Amino acid sequence: MNDGQPNGAGPSACTGIAGLDDILGGGLTPNRLYLVEGTPGTGKTTLSLGFLLEGVRLGQKVLYVTLSETEHELRAVAATHGWSLDGLELVELVAEAGLDPDLEQTLLHPSDVELGETVRGVMDRVETLKPERVVLDSLSELRLLAQNPLRYRRQILALKHFFSKLNCTVLVLDDRTSEPGDLQLHSIAHGVITLEQAAIDFGAERRRVRIMKFRGRKFRGGYHDYTIETGGLCVYPRLVASEHHREFAPDPVSTGAAGLDRLLGGGLVPGTNTLLVGPAGVGKTTTAVQCMVAALDRGQHAAYFLFDERLPTLLARSAALGMDLVPHIEAGRLTVRQIDPAELSPGEFAGAVRKAVEEDGASVILIDSLNAYMQAMPNDKFLILQMHELLSYLSRHGVVALMILGQHGVMGDLRADVDLSYLADSVMLLRFFEAEGEVRKAISVVKTRTTDHERTIREFRVGAGGVVVGEPLSGFRGVLTGLPEYRNESGPVMGGTDRERQLVG
Prior knowledge:
Helices cover about 30% and strands about 25% of the residues.
């Protein structure tokens, strides 16, 4: 987009970071000066090196001017990412000779001479090389040499006007060591990219980026999570569900258990999400896995985000129940990602879900469980907002989403960490109850938005054939409370051998 300034914008200048280009609406407007600010450790150098290396890849001349770090340090940073700086012109303006106390001026203040020499040195190298991309690292040194805000602003303006005549895109880095609230650089720059990091009580620090300003271009506002990985920054644009849509057939699909299909009014409907709620050990994961395996057997793709259980344990238990996941994983139909919530940011998780849907073609997403996922959030309201947008996104893509929410306790009054039932299209309630001297399991569907579901409460068992659903428990009262009252001695409860039980439903 051309904002009317000299040297028309032309095509966007890609930053080399796909997520950042997405946030910027395609990339940077060429031939402008941009401020990249952030405290030490936020990844300013990594971002700027990636920006220059993208220019090298495109056959452009690029220049990195360092006033703070040495060339050796920059090459070490590049090596950690597996980058070669071949084709990148690197200029270190702070020479060892400049630190010699014998060379200090006596008639003039040293900063007067050093500031002018530094700025002139930058200009000379740019005029000689005529680069298309420039990084100036960092403005903190110029601020110290200027000693007062007026001289500092004048020097930055001089650099800006100088660069504007040479048709080069410039990133200037700042470590935010100035006075809090000092925004004079923001008014000078064409755009401002702010990098932040915050330490949490447990786990890795969280990093996020925000576009504070971008003249003449519509960009994606707000905060976006990012991580520093081997190979550069990975930015995860904030998910906006309304920007996504895919055509799909809304016909219900089977869960793989006839009794469960009857409870749901025909099965699971594409574009809806189902919440499985119950205490630990009641069979939530097994029920969700059976629904997922039924889809895999139909040739669909699925993604399993595993927070709680170890992957080997899940695979062994599923195989023992006749739902072997390994063949599906080997065939590429199933992706299982084991996640440590202490190391995960909300944006990174949303990015992983998007990749599973858009790149891997997953039509079933299983999140096990929301309890652990909540630990990746600063507080409950962020979980709810994030899940609302994520579920809306999955709905627009026709994905069947299965979510597991564990409750505290076993029987009686059960509590959950957070109530997400109002976001769910369908809610399955799983409970323990006691009958005939045994601890048994009951399942019911208490809500669906798309079908006329059964209002009954059915007993179910987990065996070698997976989940088997029995007849309605008409002889009990208070089953879902976990403290049932046996009202009818002829009430049907599942009995017989495992083989006979498997035939029920």
